[in-house]
Fold this sequence. Notes:
Blueprint: H1 7-13, H2 39-46, H3 61-74, E1 78-82, H4 85-94, E2 102-106, H5 111-123, E3 127-131, H6 137-141, E4 148-154, H7 166-175, E5 180-183, H8 188-191, E6 201-205, E7 219-223, H9 237-240, H10 251-255, H11 259-272, H12 278-289, H13 291-311, E8 315-319, H14 329-335, E9 343-348, H15 351-361, E10 366-367, E11 377-379, H16 391-396, E12 404-407, H17 413-427
Parallel strand pairs: 2-3, 2-4, 4-5, 5-6, 10-11
Antiparallel strand pairs: 1-7, 6-7, 8-9, 9-12, 11-12
Helix pairs in contact: 1-3, 3-12, 15-17
The structure holds pyridoxal-5'-phosphate.
Pyridoxal-5'-phosphate is lined by residues 84-86, 89, 110, 112-113, 154, 158, 183, 185, 205, 207-208, 217, 219.
Amino acid sequence: MKQGYAKETICIQSGWKPGNGEPRVLPIYQSTTFKYESSEQMGRLFDLEESGYFYTRLQNPTNDCVAAKICELEGGVAAMLTSSGQAANYYAVFNICEAGDHVVMSSTVYGGTHNLLTVTMKKMGIECTVVDPDDSPESLRKAFKPNTKCVFAETIANPALVVLDIEKFATLAHEYGVPLIVDNTFATPINCNPFLWGADIVTHSTTKYMDGHATSVGGVIVDSGNFDWSKYPERFPGLCTPDDSYHGIIYTEKFGKGAYITKATTQLMRDLGSIQAPQNAFLLNIGLETLALRMERHCSNAQKVAEFLEAHDAVAWVNYPGLKSNKYHELAEKYLPKGSCGVISFGLKSGRLGAGRMMDYLELASIVTHVADARTCVLHPASHTHRQMTDEQLVEAGVAPDLIRLSVGIENVNDIIADLKQAIEKAN
Ligand SMILES: *Cc1c(COP(=O)(O)O)cnc(C)c1O
């Protein structure tokens, strides 16, 4: 792709580049394997001496075209698709951590990520210190240890909608010689490019806005190429010392800025196998074509819905970074000048019970566990994902008992507001 295309253009034109007489639309390479003329050539692929496809558990051309498009949208040097956002975050961390290592993570990350790092990866011997993302640098410094290997946070936290001070986190991570990994799912590369603010690795659950139509679970990891692993060979031996499973190659020496993604592909995909199905990558690519358009509408709709809710008598509180009253409004103006996302959280004066009642009266908005879909949807964590918890336990977990998570879709905003209005009034 020629340098300098705008994101809207990249969304449509990047990735698949058909040759003369080839399909205009990215084909689904629905094949587990790829054919070669000589045994020697196949051997060179296995030695990583030559690049080429041999087995879809590691790489597939459909996936690579879609990964290249996302890579360009983020301004990175290399990217890989994964079977889910969970797999992306797992690989992003595990690619540079092993038993005995340590991670610093923001407390407000998505519940699945919180559990992955504090429960599941702990069983693998990787320790995690959870920090308040709003803390001062002085206080955040206390979380770092000699064995810290990375810092992990979200641009806009799901569902707390905390906007990350990316520069503050990047500066701190770099002070300790470790990369900052940012999950950019809610902002999408349309609204924020964390690399511009010093983040080193970006991940996404492509299941959300990127697909946008709730058809396919998927994830992606993008490397900025900016983190100099070879400056810290003792801290990152997996990248800077010989890999016995590939005849002693050293990723940083052989692949330069491609080292991190090459290692994640050749080791983690090979051994753990969480590739995205090419069929899902094809659907993701169609979603990406309209991502810029959809984000614009999600954000303008959400802004109007948030303003409507804030002005409603029956509403106790509204959390949306686009509101002037919001704690994160200033950070949002800096990092998300085009808008944040379509997700709003709010509470009714009638509390936990009122939330459930109101949702039953919704006609257009549907009750689903999904967010970031073209269709408006709602979830009441206290009645659904966290229903086993008491009010006290919910507060401890950072989920207000009355919190309604509203994912504003791209329908006509007047219809969305009218639906909320009638439901709130009936439930009152
Ligand atoms: C949904 C989500 C994930 C997990 O992604 P899946 O595709 O559901 O595995 C990770 N991070 C964030 C911010 C999410 O919203």
